[in-house]
Design goal:
The complex is a heterodimer of chains A (348) and B (236).
Chain A lengths: L1 E9 L2 E8 L6 E10 L2 H8 L4 H7 L2 E2 L3 E8 L10 E4 L2 E2 L27 E2 L11 E5 L3 E3 L6 H4 L2 H12 L8 E5 L3 H13 L3 E6 L2 H4 L6 E4 L10 E6 L5 H12 E9 L11 H7 L2 E4 L5 H10 L3 H8 L2 E7 L2 H12 L6 E6 L2
Parallel strand pairs in A: 11-12, 11-14, 12-13, 14-15, 15-16, 17-18
Antiparallel strand pairs in A: 1-2, 1-4, 3-5, 3-9, 3-18, 5-6, 6-10, 7-8
Helix pairs in contact in A: 4-5, 4-9, 5-10
Chain B lengths: L1 E7 L17 E2 L2 E2 H10 L6 E6 L4 H10 L5 E6 L4 H13 L7 E6 L7 H14 L1 E7 L23 E10 H13 L8 H6 L6 E4 L10 H10 E2 L7
Parallel strand pairs in B: 1-4, 1-6, 4-5, 7-9
Antiparallel strand pairs in B: 2-3, 6-8, 7-8
Helix pairs in contact in B: 3-5
The chains are: A alpha/beta (348), B alpha/beta (236).
């Protein structure tokens, strides 16, 4: 069938593409209903990637945070009309039995670390399309009581789940989260609902930190952070700012502590390895999330407090009727300084 | 209930070397009609579809509806001698199961790039106002000439729109318009909104799209083919 989509073809330039969609084996036909824009989408939109990389990526459908409705599922896994979250981490033709990397079978790693994995809106077309055929194994059903503007944030919640999966959290730990952005907020919310721990948040913006449901908040550089006996720390800063954050984390964490890095720095940053060695700190990297993380994220919607926390991130719903609306919402998100996201409802 | 009537009654017009009605020309493995039907078939607000076509094509259409799993197609209706008669035939057949407040969305099968939004807004508009027409503002200046040689006048552009389809109505409104036309011996209307206007019912506008263009010539077909990007590897 014929379907319309928007592809980025250059910085701040989208084009309409009409594609002929065919439902492939083990795939379902999905109508994309709701989506949000990620920082990675904004980097492509603004052309803030290496020129050679952009040359290889354009033109491409952006968006990897999206939910949709099942139109047709020949595999019989889903019913027509089921609402589903689309998992952007894709594995094609992978013979796990002959794989010698032993990634997928390790719970703390998983297929989101597979070098063969593709990712929608990065190495594979994303979800800025009216309809698409998508692997059934990459779809997770949304509970009927969860509204679209909540469910669409499932991808970010799954990334928080994937970050938590990298470490072994014990009851009573003091866990510090650096970063007062949306991932920091969600990570704190997930930690709160999943673990009986003390959570502290560190960031640069007091008004944003105050919105976090944590035990204590501190502005960066506050000497009080050193007194907190931090067992484990999560970096949710990214960009050049992550250098300062990681430095502070290394200084403040207890010897033997785990530091989990989630932010993309883009450029190389300096890290004080001497302190890491002296304190026996473990640094762990996190990228993206897998199907199980999405399932875990959906399970968290059973907690009312958690859903209420996620609800606060909704900065407003914007109906996308055409490519001009699509442009406008990207511009709004570029200039967004608030804690939260604009929710796109596709109606084109 | 929201019912789509898809007009596929056009006779063969020579487009290239094959004398096939435009709506049945193959476009990347499927007749243009099927591409159009698919958009209506998967639209969540459409409950049933009637296709109006010449009798000689009914068997082919039945095969296609099975092959492409067009599950909402409920009626295949014989086309009339004129567009007005074809629609009247469609209205009569669906009328056996229709109620006055049901919505009828009438669309030309040779507009395969109809969008979901246009269908949705047609249904919403018809529910609210009783009758809607899909239009786009004209970007070009329209010239009126009576003799095909000299300009008679140049109407004000901002008042002019180009009519597309769908045209959508409450069932009772469009049936009344067709009955009124019969009583007044009007039998060659090219457009249902004209008939509805004659009954005193106002018709509201739904914003169409340039992409919802009509395939009438070889150039249109070429345009459609060049718009549809196909056979590309999904990997980027």
């Amino acid at each position: 069938m014929l379907t319309k989509g928007f592809k980025i073809s250059g910085p701040k330039r989208f084009e309409i593409y009409i594609d002929n969609v065919k439902v492939k084996k083990d795939e379902a036909l999905i109508k994309v209903d709701t989506a949000t824009i990620c920082k990675a989408d904004l980097r492509y939109y603004l052309g803030k990637r290496d020129e050679r990389v952009l040359g290889l990526k354009y033109p491409m459908n952006l968006l990897h945070e999206a939910i949709g409705t099942i139109i047709k599922d020949p595999s019989g896994t889903f019913n027509n009309g089921d609402r589903v979250v689309l998992v952007p981490n894709l594995i094609f033709e992978c013979d796990k039995s002959s794989c010698n990397l032993d990634i997928c079978n390790r719970k703390e790693l998983g297929e989101n670390y597979c070098p063969k994995a593709k990712f929608a809106s990065s190495s594979f077309n994303g979800f800025s399309r009216e309809y698409l055929s998508y692997p059934v194994r990459n779809l997770v059903k949304i509970p009927s009581n969860i509204e679209n503007h909540i469910a669409v944030l499932c991808e970010l919640i799954s990334v928080a789940c994937a970050a938590i999966r990298r470490v072994n959290i014990r009851e009573g730990y003091t866990i510090a989260v650096w970063g007062d952005g949306i991932l920091g907020y969600i990570l704190c919310s997930v930690l709160k609902v999943m673990h009986d721990v003390k959570i502290i948040a560190i960031g640069k913006h007091e008004e944003k930190l105050k919105q976090l449901e944590v035990d204590d908040i501190y502005l960066v550089n506050d000497k009080e952070i050193y007194m907190q006996n931090i067992d484990m720390a999560f970096e949710c800063v990214g960009g050049i700012g992550s250098q300062y954050a990681i430095d502070e984390m290394i200084k403040c964490i207890k010897p033997g502590g785990d530091i989990v890095l989630t932010g993309v720095s883009e450029k190389k940053i300096e890290i004080d390895t001497r302190k890491i060695l002296e304190k026996g700190i473990s640094l762990k990297g996190v990228t993206r999330s897998n199907v199980d993380d999405f399932k875990k994220a959906v399970e968290l919607f059973a907690y009312e407090d958690f859903v209420n926390n996620i609800e606060k991130l909704n900065l407003g719903e914007i109906c996308i009727r055409n490519i001009v609306d699509f442009h406008h919402v990207f511009e709004k998100e570029v200039n967004n300084k608030k804690l939260g996201k604009y929710i796109m409802k596709f109606a084109y | 209930m929201n019912i789509a009537i898809i007009l596929a009654g056009g006779k063969g017009t020579r487009m290239g070397s094959v004398d096939t009605p435009k709506q049945f020309i193959d476009m990347y493995g499927k007749p243009i009609l099927v591409h159009t039907l698919e958009t209506f078939d998967i639209h969540s607000d459409i409950d049933a579809i009637a296709i109006v076509s010449l009798k000689e094509w009914h068997e082919d259409i039945k095969i296609w509806t099975r092959k492409y799993e067009l599950n909402k197609v409920k009626w295949i209706v014989e086309a009339g001698k004129t567009r007005q008669e074809s629609i009247n035939n469609g209205l009569e057949v669906i009328g056996r199961e229709c109620e006055e407040e049901d919505i009828v969305v009438i669309h030309e099968s040779v507009r395969p790039l109809i969008s979901n939004r246009i269908i949705t807004e047609n249904i919403e508009g018809a529910m609210e106002y009783g009758a809607v027409d899909t239009v786009i503002p004209t970007a070009d200046t329209i010239i009126r000439s009576y003799d095909d040689e000299t300009i008679a006048d140049v109407p004000v552009r901002k008042e002019l729109y180009l009519g597309q389809t769908p045209q959508s109505f409450k069932y009772s409104v469009v049936v009344k318009a067709h009955e009124n036309a019969k009583q007044n011996q009007i039998d060659d209307a090219t457009d249902d909104c004209q008939l509805v206007l004659k009954t005193g019912q106002s018709v509201h506008l739904v914003r169409g799209e340039k992409l919802n263009f009509k395939i009438t010539t070889m150039e249109d077909l070429l345009l459609l083919k060049s718009i549809i990007k196909i056979g590309k590897l999904e990997m980027v």
